[in-house]
Design goal:
By secondary structure, the chain is α+β, with helices and mostly antiparallel strands. The chain contains 1 helix and 9 strands. This is Lipocalin-like protein.
Length: about 140
């Protein structure tokens, strides 16, 4: 009887660990287009989505380590390309984007022609710009 209890306890613990690990899995299929789906300000309940956002933008990640960012704001379209690297950390995949020139569409805390994004467990891409009073930006890959 004691062996059965130990076995059941072991299987329960093992099963719960497996579920936790499954929840932490983040896609590695990050190549392609990521559209801005929500923009959050500093005020509570300030999230906007869709056409109500102050601007529309997307990232396009290529398999060769290059990317393009495009933003349309007030009928003006700005597009920049650069290079990126990824690092996998315990809480997701982080992207460091490097631009060849400075631009107002670079959402950065440092002003050094770099942006940092992270891919989290729900497979959305988020900007770290909000860490230093910038807007919270969340991106998703189009379905289909």
């Amino acid at each position: 009887m004691k062996k059965r209890i130990i076995l059941v306890a072991f299987l329960t613990i093992f099963s719960s660990c497996s579920e936790d690990e499954a929840e932490a899995i983040v896609t590695t299929d990050y190549y392609g287009k990521w559209n801005l789906v929500s923009l959050t300000g500093r005020l509570q309940n300030s999230e906007t989505t869709g056409a109500a956002m102050a601007w529309q933008e997307f990232y396009l990640f290529n398999t060769n380590g290059t990317f393009t960012k495009s933003r349309e704001e007030n009928s003006i379209k700005t597009t920049l390309s650069g290079t990126y690297t990824t690092t996998t950390q315990f809480d997701g995949i982080f992207f460091e984007l490097t631009y060849p020139i400075d631009s107002e569409i670079i959402g950065s805390c440092y002003g050094n022609q770099k942006e940092v994004l992270f891919l989290n467990a729900n497979n959305s891409l988020s900007s770290t710009w909000s860490y230093c009073d910038g807007p919270g930006l969340k991106y998703k890959k189009p379905v289909g």
